[in-house]
Amino acid sequence: MFLTIDQGTTSSRALLFDEKGQVIDLFQKDFKQIYPNEGWVEHNPLEILSSTILCCESIISKNSGIEIKSIGITNQRETILAWDKKTGKPFYNAIVWQDRRTSEFCSNLKKEGLEREINKKTGLLLDPYFSSSKISWLLENVNGLRNLANKGDVCFGTVDSWLIWNLTNGDTFATDYTNASRTSLFNIQTLKWDDELLSIFDIPLQSLPEVRNSNDYFGETKLLSKKLKITGVIGDQQSSAFGQSCYQSGDVKSTYGTGCFLLANTGKEIIYSKKKLLTTISYKINDDLSYALEGSIFMAGGIMNWLKLNLGILDNVSDSSKIASSVDPSSKVVLVPAFSGLGAPHWSAEARGSLFGMTQDTGVPDLIHASLQSISLQTYDLMGAIKDDFSDNNLNLLNTLKIDGGMIENDWFIQNLSNICDYEIQKSFTKESTALGAAMVSGLGVGFYSGLEDFKAFYSNNEKITPKMKLELREKIINNWSKALKLSIEMAK
Fold first, then answer.
1. How many CA atoms lie within 13 A of 432 on its CB side?
2. What does the pLDDT read at residue 432?
3. Which domains does the chain have, with CATH numbers?
4. Which end of the chain is more exposed for a tag (fewer CB within 10 A), N or C?
5. Taking a C-beta distance cutoff of 8 angstroms, is the pair 3, 14 a contact?
6. What tens digit of pLDDT does each residue of 343-401 get?
7. Within 10 A of 65 (CB to CB), how many other CB atoms are there?
8. Nearest CA-CA partner of 83 in 148, 154, 164, 160
């Protein structure tokens, strides 16, 4: 058995997998979202840790007679924490990947002409999304932090590093290549923290973790009731791709959680996007290094939570499928869910949520339909950008989109996604592909699996969905979306 820590944006979870990739047990603990100012999103580091420990101990105690071979960790990426290297005390809340407080800082760096060099080295764009500007903000705004960091007394790390450091009682301060590649400080060509990037963001090297392969040994747990080897660490979206067997160039997957993240494997080639997509490390297992193009949608399943919690118009998220199917598919009500700006391929940090096409007859079902439709349409934009980038680089994109995440249980959404993207959809045999990927990596790390061939049997029963929408209707829906999107971006200027 393999234990996975899946530390996400709204909850911490622990899952127990058997050797065939099946979920044996799961425990989840939600934690508080903190919004100090408009566009700011924070988490309490100690709550991240305590909720993770609670989840792990619940699984361990319920399965006391089962041998757990190793732990894998997969985590929300880009979220950054700062803590005292001697005491482990956090200096500030975790600044979450959704946070936009450094928009002006990033804009100023763009004006200095630095984005091209940053993109060349990291594959990323200059955006508040990534960790580097968040670290710069901490250094400038937390009293005394810069002096401590210059002395080597501060740890800056993504969530995986924070968990590893605490679980090993401070023995290991490390991250893996996938998480490092999301910081805007890591050179994806040289595979090292980059001195020029550190200078641009004014961050001391000694405050950053050691970078290791995803399946390396990251130490042994000392904070849990059972000593377990940590042998798998991988960022959540790369873990999802790994869990869905995206091992070869052209494989493409999309995960629908709070946000939506689409990765297309480019093999050993580093492809720089002309469509504002990101270039990232997909995985590094031993000497096997694979790159990917990635597009991020900031709001996917999070829109459903907005309908339920903020607006109070959706009692159960599971009801959205039936409600959406009751609405005329040619509805002109369009939601642009730019609550935290727009991600790829538009990258408008200032854009805000907008609703178009309402009439006096517009009701709750129309809004729910438009909300689900917006997720399919954002995916359509991403798929178009990836197709163009692959074509420009003479690479072949496979004609199947592999999907996972909580929203794969929404039948209307999956069929609509296939209709709008005009793509065959392969539904993962488990919505837990993200956690599964980390379990697979840790199984490789502990030597239980010998290679990627061992995972072929996992995917024999994956369900496939094909497009059914008429071309004329599909084009009208896409055209209405394009108009609304353009207006939403223009209004923000």
1. 24
2. 87
3. 2-236 (3.30.420.40), 245-427+462-493 (3.30.420.40)
4. C
5. yes
6. 888 878 778 889 999 999 999 999 999 999 999 999 999 999 999 999 998 888 888 89
7. 5
8. 154
pLDDT of 341 above 90: no
Residue 363 tokens, joined:
């009701």
Q: Is the four-CA dihedral 285, 440, 262, 197 of positive or negative sign?
A: negative
pLDDT computed for residue 460 by the predictor: 65
Distance CA 250, CA 241 (A): 12
- CA 311/CA 4 separation, integer angstroms: 34
14, pLDDT greater than 70: yes
CA gyration radius for the chain? 22
State the chain's mean pLDDT as an integer. 92
Q: Three-state SS for 117?
A: helix
Are the beta carbons of 60 and 68 closer than 8 angstroms?
yes
User: For residue 133, what are its two tokens?
Assistant: 């500007």
Minimal CA–CA distance to 311: which of 352, 259, 367? 367
Q: Which helix (H) or strand (E) holds 244?
A: none
What is the spatial distance between Cα 69 and Cα 107, in angstroms, rounded to a whole number?
47
- Dump the DSSP string for 420-468: HHT-EEEE-S-TTHHHHHHHHHHHHHTTS--SGGGGGGGGTT-EEE---
Angle between helices 471-491 and 411-421 (to 10 degrees): 90
Instruction: Give, for 231, the enclosing helix (H) or strand (E).
Output: strand 230-235
Task: Give the residue from 397, 406, 5 showing the smallest Cα distance to 231.
Answer: 5
Reading the block at residue 364, the tokens are 């709750």
List, as one string, the DSSP characters of 350-381: S---EEE---TT--HHHHHHHHHHHHHHHHHH
Alpha-carbon separation of residue 124 from 55, 117, 118, 436 (angstroms): 33, 10, 7, 26
Mean pLDDT in residue range 447-476 = 86
pLDDT above 90 (res 129): no
Tracing tokens 């969530």 back to the chain, one arrives at 159
* Non-local CB neighbours of 70 within 8 Å, separated by 6+ positions: 2, 3, 228, 229, 230, 231, 232, 442, 443, 445, 446, 448
Spatial distance between the Cα atoms of 187 and 208, rounded to a whole number of angstroms: 14
